[in-house]
Specification:
The structure is a single chain. This protein is α+β, with helices and mostly antiparallel strands and 952 residues long. The protein has 33 helices and 30 strands. The strands form five sheets. Strands 10, 11, 12, 13, 16, 17, 20, 21, 22, 23 and 24 form an eleven-stranded mixed sheet that branches. Helix 29 runs antiparallel to helix 33 (920-947).
Length: 952
């Protein structure tokens, strides 16, 4: 067989007759392939396996962490610091008790810890392909050399003839040769929950959607019942599962907004630091007229470089995101990838499945039509509690006996069970039949009770060809309520004359009505007129136009039990009972969630494989779209070019009859329009779209392992409202990240300017050592920053549009705030530094003349405590806020202040950190200067309030 003999592409196999497909693959339906054929084809096509492209190794991921520009600068600082310590050690210039290389060790420890932190976050390998591989069957039965043999699935080749039986997992794509009652569950691949009835004899159009290819079986799907024989047409990466694997591996992960902003932040800080270092060194050299004090200038430069890098920031951000994940889990949103917590806050568009996410995944009867009356039915889920309304007026079922008669048919012609489990009503069986049992329960008719009144003796089962089912029951006598009187139940008394059996039929309204010649009116029957028939069909169309799934019900009294296979004879001359319209009802909480989305500037979009009428009805009911809004079907989308889809994607809020593979195109079109997209999915085919989306959201209850592994977040309750709650939490997290970045970087700039000023204003030495700066950046800044990370949300967090995911970290005034506060920090500290230097160098001073450096160190640390208290709100004064609404800030301020004082007053710590003892006057001056920082920020808020401006 040559490759040229094969049809072009897998899409055509469903459009070929069985014999033509066998000829093209040079195979035999009875004997299969020969051993020689198999060897040739294995060489040509390779093994039936999913191939994995090479990714980054663990070492590459670890090394990539140290390419961060801030960590590279710290490594350079550590090396220069170590070199200077080595020079002092060799020249004997170390002070008594001074530990050499402590700055180098501390800085490198921070670098290594940050690198490990990044590695742990990033090294979680993509397991979506591994989950795909689990869906392939290890063993399969095939006909080879005219014998039925069992082989490993990876040895399958195109042209093999494969045998299928119930319970088997299908190992390759193939064209059905023959089948007997073959049903295959394809939900993982197509998203359709119900098993598909396969038919080998069909010849389908080439453009037939994947889910409608009834003569094809697919790798990774499961045989529910029946048996079949299949001609293998595609193996390995050419199967539908293989195409998904290819798409998964071709989707490149983009950096999240937070990662992009942190990269930008690092570039700005390092560039600014190097410029400032150059200015200080150049200024010092010019001032000294040479390089005689170059070592001192290098020490100043090292301290400035350490001061500008917020060493504690990665840890604080990681902890903040981790705390966010814990809060989200309590709201049923499981975050799989840590940066996704903040990314959720940037979402502008939420593309959601309908079934189970926007709806309850529970069919609920909405409307009942009997005779010439149409009743609205109320109630939620499967609970048999609700009312019947006629013209908006509540009525009792007793007032309309047709309702009771129809409800009996709903309960008896039914294979499901309604039961209460742990306080919740649940269905065992088909959801459609469950809705009918719930309807009967609302009338007071329970299936268990009626099983004794109408004992099932035979049935004509449902099939896709007949589109109906019938149940034959023997009528039992029961107590009628009168003394010693027995007879048939009053609810069905009008059904019978003297017949011992009743047949109830349900199914397609048109087909069931077409077999009916009479109509049930009250407690008697009458001939079905043409006018009544037309009115019933109009009512059916009206229900269907509202997106309801409509069933027709009828009955027939029988004198005998029909023999098996006699449905065509006995399902004639039926008595029409009425129509029942049901819907997978919207979740009650979703309407509020959709409105919250609208208020927050987020556009909800529905994407479903369901019928367009149903999709429009649900979307309109929930407020996702208006009645007149445009709807796009899968076939229309298929005909569009990418450019045409991009032009229309902002105008469409409902996509119906959409295959999961279309989702990828929708996501890409939205992203090209600059939208930040969250996409839900549960099937295997959804995985590429979930990976492509900025936030991929898998279903926790109905989702496949493949979709979960490709996602950023898993909805534990499959509920759209949970997405909105998680988005709110994402906004809170981003707001708090901005808050503590303001807090940390404001002080860092103050530190840098203070260090730079010392040699320029003629003070001897560096005011802060690298170790002291690390202490401030990790402890003094870190603990209050963590406390600010759990600040409660502002009241208007979901009353504003999402901030652009592409905005700079310094956007909306944050950059100017950092510079302004940093300058104020520096002015206060430089003023204190000048006073302290004069104070400690005055004649008669009893302490160490370097005590001024400890005063600078202490002032910077305590000033940050005031900054932490004031920055809790951008607009409200501290006295206007409940101090205990974030008890962690108060605790962090107290603990950090105590730790700072221990560095001054505990001798071992004082020796290690190179500080000096402060008397009460000196400590009081430090506290007084520090308080000015708190006062300034509060005065800024008052000024902005007077000017009518809102702070960042």
């Amino acid at each position: 067989m040559s490759a040229n003999s094969l049809p072009e592409g897998a899409a055509v196999w469903h459009s070929l007759e069985v014999n033509k497909a066998l000829d093209l693959l040079d195979s035999n339906a009875d004997s299969g392939l020969t051993s020689q054929d198999i060897q040739q084809r294995l060489q040509q096509y390779g093994p039936n396996e999913l191939e994995e492209t090479a990714g980054r190794s663990a070492w590459e991921i670890l090394l990539d962490q140290f390419k961060n520009i801030m960590l590279l600068m710290l490594i350079g600082v550590a090396l220069i610091s170590g070199f200077l310590d080595l020079m002092r050690l060799q020249s004997g210039n170390l002070k008594p008790g001074e530990v050499p290389f402590k700055d180098t060790i501390a800085i490198l420890a921070i670098v290594i810890l940050n690198g490990i932190l990044g590695y742990v976050q990033e090294s979680r390998a993509e397991k979506a392909l591994a989950a795909l591989k689990k869906m392939t069957s290890p063993l399969v039965r095939v006909f080879r050399d005219a014998r039925l043999v069992e082989i490993a699935a990876k040895e399958l080749v195109p042209g093999d003839v494969m045998q299928l039986e119930a319970g088997m997992q299908i190992a390759a794509d193939g064209r059905l040769i023959e089948e007997s009652n073959l049903q295959i569950r394809e939900s993982a691949l197509t998203g359709e929950a119900e098993a598909v009835n396969k038919q080998a004899t069909l010849k389908l159009p080439e453009e037939t959607d994947l889910g409608d290819r009834l003569n094809i079986v697919f790798q990774g799907t499961e045989v529910v019942q029946g048996r079949g024989k299949v001609l293998v047409t595609n193996t390995g990466m050419t199967t539908e599962l293989g195409k998904i694997a290819t798409m998964l591996q071709s989707v490149e992960s983009e950096p999240t907004p937070l990662q992009q902003r942190m990269t930008q932040l690092g570039n700005v800080l390092v560039t600014g630091s190097l410029i400032l270092v150059a200015i200080v060194v150049a200024g010092g050299v010019i001032k000294d007229g040479g390089f005689k004090n170059i070592q001192e200038l290098l020490e100043v430069s090292l301290s400035m470089a350490v001061a500008v890098v917020p060493e504690g920031l990665p840890a604080v951000i990681t902890v903040t995101l981790a705390l966010g994940t814990q809060r989200m889990v309590r709201q049923n949103a499981l975050i799989r990838k840590l940066p996704a917590v903040e990314t959720l806050g940037s979402v502008t568009t939420i593309c959601s499945d309908k079934t189970g996410t926007l709806t309850q995944n529970k069919m609920v009867v909405q409307s009942v039509s009997t005779n010439d009356k149409t009743f609205r039915v109320t109630g939620e889920g499967y609970a048999p509690i609700g009312d019947f309304q006629l013209d908006a007026q509540k009525i009792s079922p007793e007032e309309s006996p047709e309702i009771s008669a129809l409800s009996v048919a709903c309960a008896v012609c039914n294979d499901s069970v309604l039961q209460k489990e742990q306080g919740e009503w649940a269905i065992l069986g088909d959801p459609t039949e469950g809705a009918l049992l719930t309807l009967a329960g609302k009338v007071g008719i329970e299936k268990d009770q009626w099983s004794s009144k109408l004992t099932r003796v035979a049935e004509f089962p449902f099939s896709s060809e007949r589109k109906r089912m019938s149940v034959i029951s023997q009528v039992q006598e029961v107590a009628t309520g009168e003394a010693s009187s027995r007879g048939v139940d009053p609810a069905i008394a009008g059904f019978l004359q003297s017949e011992p059996y009743l047949m109830f039929t349900k199914g397609s309204p048109e087909l069931t009505l077409g077999r009916s010649t009479q109509i049930h009116l009250g407690n008697h029957t009458a001939p079905l007129t043409e006018k009544q028939r037309q009115k019933i069909l109009v009512e059916n169309d009206q229900m269907a136009s509202k997106g309801l799934r409509v069933l027709g019900f009828a009955y027939k009294p029988l004198a005998q039990i029909p023999p098996e296979g006699s449905d065509e004879v006995f399902e004639q001359d039926l008595v029409w009972l009425g129509l029942v319209g049901m819907l997978d009802a919207p979740r009650p909480e979703v309407r509020l969630a959709v409105q919250e989305c609208r208020d927050a500037g987020i556009r909800p979009v529905m994407i479903t494989g369901d019928h367009q009428l149903t999709a429009r009805a649900i979307a309109t009911d929930l407020g996702i779209a208006q009645e007149s809004d445009r709807l796009l079907t899968g076939q229309e989308l298929q005909r569009m070019t990418d450019q045409e889809l991009e032009q229309n994607v902002d105008l469409v809020s409902i996509y119906a009859r959409v295959s999961p593979e279309h989702k990828l195109r929708i996501v890409q079109a939205l992203q090209r329009r600059g939208r930040f997209v969250a996409m839900t999915g549960d099937g295997v085919n959804d995985a590429p779209a979930l990976k492509q989306a900025d936030i991929g959201i898998a279903m926790g209850i109905t989702g496949t392992d493949v979709s979960k592994e490709a996602s950023d977040m898993v909805l534990l309750d499959d509920n759209f409202a949970t997405i909105v709650s998680a988005t709110r939490e994402g906004r809170v997290v981003y707001t708090n990240i901005r808050r503590f970045i303001k807090y940390i970087l404001g002080s860092n700039i103050g530190e840098v300017l203070t260090i730079a000023a010392a040699p320029l204003i003629g003070l001897g030495g560096v005011p802060l050592t690298p170790l002291q700066i690390l202490w401030m950046n990790l402890v003094t800044d870190g603990l209050p920053a963590l406390a600010l990370a759990v600040e409660p949300p502002e009241p208007d967090v979901m009353q504003r549009p999402p901030f652009s995911p592409r905005e700079s970290i310094f956007a909306r005034g944050l950059g100017s705030y950092i510079i302004r506060i940093g300058i104020i920090f520096a002015i206060i500290t430089i003023a204190l530094m000048w006073w302290a230097y004069q104070h400690t160098h005055a004649a008669g001073y009893q302490g160490d003349r370097d005590t001024w450096k400890t005063m600078v160190f202490t002032t910077l640390c305590i000033a940050q405590m005031g900054h932490a208290i004031a920055i809790r709100s951008n607009n409200r004064l501290t006295i206007e806020m409940n101090p205990f609404s974030n008890i962690f800030v108060l605790a962090a301020v107290v603990v950090t202040t105590i730790l700072q004082l221990m560095l001054v007053y505990v001798p071992p710590l004082r020796d290690f950190f190179g500080t000096h003892y402060l008397n009460m006057q000196e400590l009081g001056v430090c506290i007084g200067f520090s308080a000015l920082m708190f006062v300034w920020i509060e005065l800024e808020k008052i000024f902005l309030r007077i000017m009518g401006k809102k702070a960042v």
